[in-house]
Amino acid sequence: MARTPAAVLAAALSISALCPASAATKKVHVPDQYDGSWSITAVTTEGPCSPSTTYHVQIKDNDTSIPGEDIDIDGSVTSSGVVTATITKGSVKVPITGSLDPKGTGRGTWQTKGGLVACTGSWSATRSRSDT
Fold first, then answer.
1. How remote is the C-alpha of 23 from its chain's centroid?
2. Where is the signal peptide (predicted)?
3. Is residue 55 part of a domain?
């Protein structure tokens, strides 16, 4: 398993309606300064993926959990907040880039690779005020 920030999950989650889901906790290296409850909105700008989807995720001690998702994640968030990852769900790969701010916001882009679905979009993240 890998460690991942909430924002890294946004792109894969925007295509989740196209794939069956179970449950997952995946790990990618994430500095502790990003711990907390995050709301992630993934917006599709091109392709047949869901137009806009919001997810609520929890990062605690570098573990990220989102009930109902079966995904593989390979990537990281640097201490300065640079997000680089690839999320794989079935045959669909979703490269993600962007940034997180320790004060509780983030944004970036994503695109699907492989599989039957070709989509691109952006993501934005906001950490709950109680976690900032």
1. 15
2. 1-23
3. yes
Pairing of strands 36-46, 120-127: antiparallel
Q: Is the pTM of this model over 0.85?
A: no
For 71, the domain range is 6-131
Report in angstroms the alpha-carbon separations of 83 from 15, 88, 97.
19, 16, 5
- Which CATH number does the domain housing residue 13 bear? 2.40.128.120
pLDDT digits (tens, 9 = 90+) for 96-117: 899 999 899 999 999 987 777 7
Q: What is the pLDDT of residues 40-64, one digit of tens each?
A: 888 999 999 889 988 777 777 666 6
Q: For residue 128, what is the DSSP state?
A: -
